[in-house]
Every structure is written in structure tokens, then in C-alpha cells.
Amino acid sequence: MVKYTPMMEQYLKIKADQKDAFLFFRLGDFYEMFYDDAIQAARELEITLTKRDGGQEDSVPMCGVPYHSANNYIKKLVEKGYKIAICEQMEDPKDAKGVVKREVVQLITPGTVMETNMLNERDHNYIASLSHFDDGSYVIVYNDLSIGESNVALISDGWDAVLHELYNQPIKEMVVSPDLPETLQNTLRDKLNITLSFHDDETFQAKYRDLCENLNDKRFVQAFSRLLNYLQNTQKRSLDHLQPANVIDLDYFLSLDMYSKRNLELTETIMKKGKHGSLLWVLDQTVTAMGTRMLKKWIDRPLLKKEEIEERFDIVEGFLHGFMEREELWEALKSVYDLERLAGRVAFGNVNARDLIQLKQSLEQIPELKRILKQFDQPRIQELSRNLTFPEELVNLLDSSLRNDPPVSIREGALIKDGYHEKLDTYREASRNGKQWIAELEQKEKQATNIKSLKIGFNRVFGYYIEVTKANLHLLPEDRYQRKQTLTNAERFITPELKEKEQLILEAEEQSIDLEYHLFLEIREQVKKCIPQIQYLAELVSQIDVLQSFASVSEANQYIRPRFSNERLEIKNGRHPVIEKVMKNDAFVPNDISLDQETNILLITGPNMSGKSTYMRQLALTAIMAQIGCFVPSEKAEMLLFDQIFTRIGAADDLVSGQSTFMVEMLEANHALANATENSLILLDEIGRGTSTYDGMALAQAIVEQIHDHIHAKTIFSTHYHELTALEDSLDRLKNIHVRAEEYDGKVVFLHQVKEGAADQSYGIHVAKLADLPISLIDRASSILEHLEKKDRSTIEDAGQLSFFAEGRPQIKEKKAPAAQSEHKLIKDLKTINLFEMTPMDAMNELYRLQKQAKE
Ligand code: ADP
Ligand code: MG
Predict the structure, then answer these.
(1) CA 303 – CA 515 distance, rounded (Å)
(2) What is the model's pTM?
(3) Atom from ligand 1 closest to the CA of residue 739
(4) Is 607 assigned a ligand-binding role in the annotation?
(5) 563-696+706-784: CATH class
(6) How far, in Å, are 593, 717, 795 from residue 752 at the CA level?
(7) For 32-64, how does the pLDDT look when each residue is reduced to its tens digit (9 = 90+)?
(8) Matching CATH topology for 284-391+530-557 and 422-524?
């Protein structure tokens, strides 16, 4: 067998431990990749694939990136969810006997990047871990390394609940046990787009005791240990900067399942996956990146406690009334940098002087913020003002020590101000004096030699020298200087005196740079001690930012402060916060809604495109806005405090998954039925649409009855099964409402007005008309419809006007179309069409086909 070259052997050995990462193998000035790594990297990075002789018969696929620009390539790969193992040469190739020693020094992964240019400033960057326990519970740990923050949550009701919780969190990577069943792994990877890492060591380490001080459950400690052990093993760097983990009690917040998070487009839209068009887009007038991150957290976890919400309302109201002061507040916030991430980097030990200057400038805004907040006529805002404590000593330290324009590097001096440190001043003085002496020497020698162009210069190799051009050499007395270097048209000289001074200057400079570096590290340590204080300020500033954002948005869009009630929900002239923004010219039609003990289910009917879905989502969004402490889009709002919100969308409207089957729809409905309480809000939009009419209708009805009789959740149910409106008679707490559309001049006009009672007809054909289909075709469709309606009415009568279902009779009468032999095939086709199962577009297509046949 042909052997590998020694280097290739070394490569394969190291690669064996880095199976799920690209191995960046340092070879001189390049990081090289081989085999599959090379093939895949060449494709992902669009770089050239080459070959290298590895000792075997076939050469080895290879590609590489230059060491100095590696960061760009790493960034690209990390953004695509890959991991990169950096393998360095551990000795100078010149000194190496045999193959140069190499080791993996760091694993860069999507969840562990710290570099500012690889992080999205307006989003957290979580590495999470998941542990499962014998009792069926799961523990999730969220960690943002860039900030040093960790949160843990216990999920005791099964895997689905885990997914609901994880959905929409900015998790880039998740550490799991290799024992986690493969199907679950795949779900995490494919559905939630998370990079998985495997680590099974859950041993608690004493050195992390402080980090676990808030964790009051053994399972928390175990799960957190898995994450810490993984980080320690792969990152090979200190984790000193992590703060103690906090427990998130999920029962403390309104819970939104993942379907609701997605369907309600809270932080991103379904189709474009962007912020534009989401609730976040409307609510985000925050000034700082910290504010945006906090706003997202709030939207993800609306509150349940009335007092806490009212507190936010009070502050928003205060901000709302102080318009001038709020403008001042914006200005001050603009000068606040990302305190959270700055604190993270201080702790982590990778801040430079520029970061500390940013920190100083941010902290300098605190007195200004205090002053501005004190002006608002609202006790809670004044309390915020009092809580902002100015870290005067820290700011003084930074101000007296650091220059305002420091370089990026902390090892080249020019960081520390004059007057900060006596010794440093002496060195600088010495260096300055030396330079002064040299300048004087230049003058003196010019005069003595009468050579005007004589000059004293400096370079790194020869130090200080006196330069005389060849043309002037004859003016120079023999032996005045020692010759050092000959250039094409000049000679360079030195004198013992000059070298003596040079020695002093260079020493002083070297010492001062060295000293500056150490002083900088000292300052950094001082700042480190203030991290908790900085984090506290960061938290307060973020809150202030979000609440001023609520005030600004509420003012711009004329939102009002809702009231909470225990009995009923009553919204007057409510609007959909996003759609009203997207539509121009105040075109949005406001609507009322009311739900209480007597009426907890609304059944909404109306033609396609009339506004049923909008009306339902409007309620959910309004509830969420209220429970995060924002004002709401209506003229009057009495709200209930919802504990959970569920939304289900019928298959035909489910644009996202597309292939969403009826089964999925039913699973989702079941999820709502199993978890909802009387304090929940359930939105069922066209449920049962994914199956045949009677099937769908029967299921829809059974679901409504279940909610009505057993769950008592506040529910809105939209349906295109007009037959279901008969339920109003049999279910006490169900009320029909409909969205009005009017026929005007043979065309349907959508008024988007929600009224009591049931809708009387479906307007599918009129929608087709709006789409400008030929008049002859529309006419034909109208007559078919008329025919079908007659027939449909008869079948409904057959079915006993649905009271048939209401009474729970076991059988549904089979409807049979009398198959008359004489009938034309077209008529037969027409008879079998069921308009209720079709979208207007499908109906049009079908009609088009029929008409074509008729013409043949
Ligand atoms: P449905 O669910 O009844 O088919 P949608 O709720 O999807 O209808 O609404 C269809 C379109 O009608 C929306 O995209 C929006 O442009 C418009 N619309 C809905 N409600 C209103 C309203 N209250 N005022 C103005 N336009 C509305
Ligand atoms: Mg709809």
C-alpha cells in the first residue's frame, strides 16, 4: 500500500477529531483544506479547487484561503451555519525537525463568534443547549456569548412544547446529546435552521459554581454544565465573562405557540422573511441596537401581570405627553453605543481603547438622560431617572487616562493621555527631549558644514543618521562623521553622540509603549469591576428606549391606552396595526369587537377577500401589543389578559408550508384544544378547508362545540361554510358576525365592515369579475352558480339544516346525484363541482375549461 506523505498523515489525524467542521490547516501563508472539505468550501466560497500530491496514487483535492484575509471567508461560512476549526503551526517551520507541529487552536461556530463584524447588532446571537430527562422534561439554555448572558427554561410538557418555545429565537447553534433521537435532531436542523453540535458531558464543575447560583433545580445545573463544558472544550479560552444564568419562568408570560408566532408575523413576515410588514416593523422606533433586541424579547414574551403592564403604560403615557422632552431623549440615546456588547467584550478581554472610548461616551450620556427623564411629569419616569446612577469614578478614570483618538492596536502606544502616569510622562519627556536635541543638532551641523540640504533621518534598520547628498560631499570635512550607508546619490553618516541619543530615545519609546500597554490592561481590569453596573445601566437604557419607542409609535399612529377588565373585551373602531400602515390614505376600515362571558365565540362569515382573516389577526395583535405595554390601534379598548394565544389557518390559506396537509391542520387544532384555557384566545381561520365539504364542516362544527362546551376560551372562527351559521341557534355563547360586501352595479364592493349576523352569499364569482375575466364567462358562471345554489339548498334541507349535526346524530345521509343517462357530460361535470371547496381562482380555471368544452 502506498503511504501518505507525513504532512497528509498529520492532516488526517487532526481531521478525524473535527468531523463536523471545515479544517483550516495552516500551511505557511495559507489555510488549506483537503478532500471533501476542499470540494465543499470551493463551492461555498467560490474559490478555485486544485490538487496536491498526498503520497497516494490519486492526488488530493485542495483549496486554500490566504491567512491575512481568512476572516472574510470564515464569516461567509459561519453565516451559512458551518463550523471552522483553525489549525495553526505551533512552531517555526525553520526550527522544525520533520513535519511542523500543528494544533487546532479554536473552533469558530455560528453560536460562538464574538467578532463585531460577524454579529448582527440588532439581534442576539444565541448558542443554546438542550437536555432531556427521564421524567420527560427538557431544559433549554440560551446563551449569548457576546454579552455573557445565559437564561434557562424548563419545559415539562413534551417535545412539541420545546419546539414552540424555540421557534423564532435567534439561535445559531445548539448543543445536544448525541442520544437525542435522530428525528428530533432533524427537526431542529431542518425546521428551525439550527446548527447542531454534540456534547454529552453534563458534569458540574466547581469552578462554575457562581454561574449556577440562581439555578434552583438540578436539571438546570446539568443542562447548563453541558453548554459550559462544550464551550470550554471547543473554545479553548476563558469563560470568565459569563454572568450567572437566570431562570425564565415560562408561566410568567403569555405563551404563543409557533404557529401563532409565524402566522401573526410578529417579527418577520411569512413570505419574505423580512422585518418589513411585521409587528416589529411597526413598533420599532428604538434608537439603540440594545433597544431593538429588548423589543424583540418583549414581543416574544408578553406579560401576564396587570401591574407590570400598567407600569409600562404609565411610562409610555408619560413619554407620550412630553413631546419636546422626548426629542431630547432621542438625541441623548443616539450617543449611547451598545453597552451590553461593550461590557461583554470588556469581560471577555478583547476590548481595545476605541471600545473604551465608546464606553466612556455612552456613560457620559447618563447624567444627560437623568436630567431629561426628570423633566417628564410622571413619577415612574422620574424613578427611572433616579435609578440611572452615573458611574462617575469610571468615567473619570477613562477620561483622565485614555486619549480620544486611540489606534485600533493596543500594542503600539498612543493610547494614554499625558499627565495620567508620572513614569510615562518621564519617558515621553525623554523621547521628546531627545528629538528636540536631534532637531537642534541638524541646525548646528547645517551651519557648521554649510550644507543646506543636510538632514537627519531615521529608519528602523540604521536608526538615526545624517544624510548628505553626493553633490555636497566635497563640503564635508574628512572624518567629521562615520560613514554608515551609501545610496545612489547620498551618503549616510552617524556620530557616537547621535547614537547615544538614539539609544535614549528608542529606549524611552519602547518603555513608554510597553508601559502604555500595561496601563491599558490595568484600566481594563478596573472597568471589568464595573461590569454589573454597566449591565444594569444597559438594561435600563434598553427599557427606556423601548418605552419611548412605544410612545412615539402610539403618537404617530394614534394608539390609545387600553384598560384591562376581568369580564369582557370591548374594542371600538379597532384597526390592524400593520395593514393600516401599509394601506395609504386612511383607507383601512376600523371595526368593533366584543367578547364576554355571554358571548365567547364569534363565527365570522363573508366572501373571500372581505377581511375575515384581517379582523381575527387584528385582535391577536392588539392583545399582544397591550400585554407588552404598548398602546393599541383603536378608539377605545377594554382588554382581557390572555394567558395563551392559538392561531390555526386552514390549508388553503397556509401559504408557508404549501403542502400543509389536512392532518397537520388537525394536529394544530388539537394542540389548541388540548392547551387552551378559558383565559386563552383561539383564532381558527377557515379550519376544515383541507378536506371535502361535509367532512370539513362536521369537524369544524365539532371543534366549535368542544370549545363552547368545555374550554370556554375566547374564540373567533371564520368559515366559508355558511351552513355553520345555524350553530347560533344551538350554541348559547356563539354569535354570528359577517363582513359586509355589497353588490353594486353587478359588481361586488368590499366594505370591510364587520356586522352582526351571518353573511348571505358567497361572492367568488364577483371576485373573478374584479380580476377582469371576460363578461361572457362571468355570465355563464353566474347561471351555473344559480343552478348549483338551488341544488345545494336541497342538499342542506336533506341534511336537516345542520341541526342534524347539532343533535349529534351519528350518520350523515349520503347525497347521491341522480345520474341521468341523457344528461350531457358538461352538465354532469357542472353538477359535481363544489364551489365551496374551491378558491375563486380554481373556480375560474374550471369554468374556463367547461366553457371551452361547451364551445367545441
Ligand atoms: P378574507 O380572510 O376574508 O379572505 P383578508 O382578511 O385576507 O380577507 O383581507 C383581504 C384584503 O382586504 C386584505 O389584504 C386587505 O387589503 C383588505 N382588508 C381587509 N380588512 C380590511 C379593512 N378593515 N379595511 C380595509 N381593507 C381591508
Ligand atoms: Mg382569510
Answers:
(1) 52
(2) 0.84
(3) 3
(4) yes
(5) alpha beta
(6) 14, 17, 31
(7) 999 999 999 999 999 999 998 878 778 899 999
(8) yes
